[in-house]
Amino acid sequence: MTFGPKTTSLDCGLGHACQFCPEETHCTLDKPLHNKRLIENRLEEIGHIIVVLANKGGVGKSTVSANLSAGLARLGFRVGVADADIHGPNQSRFFGFAGGRTRTTYDGLKTLAFEADGISHPVKVGSLAFMLEDDSTPVVWRDAYKHDFIHHLIGSFDWGSLDYLVVDMPPGTGNELITLCDMLEGSDVSAVLVTTPQAVAQMDSLKAGRFCNERGLPVIGAVENMAGIVCPHCSEEFHLFPDAGLGEALEGLGISRLAAIPLAPELAMGSDTGQPVVTERPESAVARAFEPLIEAVAATGRAGFDAAVAHTLGEVFQTNLEDEALRTALADLPAGQQEELGDEIAALLSQETGRLRDMTGRNGAE
Ligand SMILES: Nc1ncnc2c1ncn2[C@@H]1O[C@H](COP(=O)(O)OP(=O)(O)OP(=O)(O)O)[C@@H](O)[C@H]1O
Ligand code: SF4
Ligand SMILES: [Mg+2]
């Protein structure tokens, strides 16, 4: 990806959309083209996008997004979390950035970096909340702006290279989700559904499941949140709601139940204090309840990494095979340029080999 202040005849190369640009009023470049390229460039750098959704509000989408992101980061992945909830952005608070602000740079809007013990790559958090005057400012946006916002969220934030971008959706399968699905068509994207055990929430999550099936959006599985309570005295788990047949209903849609997260005060407290429970108390029962979800998402990514490794290895070999041709081509250049280009190619190959070693090392370590 080539963001930065490089100006070409076709594109400025800036890492943010024109709406954030001080040059916007007098710039004569092709702005729609710039905004389109911006998203294409970002998506090229993101390995796998996980959309966390539910048809219903308050079932735990943001809680699951935050703990899934932190859990993936604990496994060594480079993770970003994009808060797509325009009306109730929560990720800033869940990662301890309440009141945090972003700034515009050549490379785009700065994400805020969440660090914790056991995480080698900080989780990059991008949220509309970083652009509001204060956290209680209500956002009243028309649909056209919402459309733009989803584009800015993915395109204008400086996500850098990521293994996963987790997108925390607002409730429902409306405008934001449709815009996102349209934008991500052709990208490596999957969904995680969140539901609670009550029959009414289940019906709603089934609607979300049907939406995914109709849109061809692969669903990794569903998370049943607030599934029961762990007794603080005897550690016995008991259920608050009668079993409304979630497992069977999901099965009918070809969706598996990945994890059951208990109703746990430390989870709510973790959200309030900005410390996801999977990094703050990784040994606790509630943190461990997230493990099957995190593992399932990691497994989809690993399949992608293996394919990427195989593909890139193929390209590296191809380059080696063409060494002879390269030498012949270089021989036609003036002496100074031969050396310069040779060095550039060597540096690129060494960088690529390092990246492959890192990726395979990380996969092998898990
Ligand atoms: N398993 C749980 N145990 C205890 N509290 C929980 C649990 N899951 C979520 N909560 C709390 O419930 C509230 C709602 O959760 P959350 O914000 O994650 O839901 P949401 O689906 O993202 O809501 P919205 O639709 O408003 O975006 C939060 O205060 C959160 O801390
Ligand atoms: S207005 Fe858009 S195209 Fe022009 S310099 Fe700014 S970001 Fe680039
Ligand atoms: Mg939410």
The residue-averaged pLDDT reads 84
Would you report the number of β strands? 11
- The termini sit apart by 29 Å
**Largest sheet geometry:** 9 strands, mixed
Shape: globular
CATH fold-level name of the largest domain: Rossmann fold
Class derived from helix and strand content: alpha/beta
Helix content: 40-55%
Question: Could you give the order of the helices and strands?
Answer: HEHEHEEEEHEHEHEEHEHHHHHH
**Overall tally of domains:** 2
Q: Percent of residues in beta strands?
A: 15-25%
Radius of gyration: 23 Å
The low-confidence parts are none
- What is the H level of CATH, i.e. the homologous superfamily of the largest domain? P-loop containing nucleotide triphosphate hydrolases
Task: Give your account of this protein's structure.
The structure is a single chain. The radius of gyration is 23 Å and the shape is globular. It folds into two domains: 44-301, 3-Layer(aba) Sandwich (Rossmann fold); 322-365, no CATH class. The chain is built from 13 helices and eleven strands. By secondary structure, the protein is α/β, with parallel strands linked by helices. The strands form two sheets. Strands 1, 2, 5, 6, 7, 8, 9, 10 and 11 form a nine-stranded mixed sheet that branches. Residues 54, 57-63, 85, 88, 90, 170-171, 225-226, 261, 263-264, 267-268, 271 line the site of adenosine-5'-triphosphate.
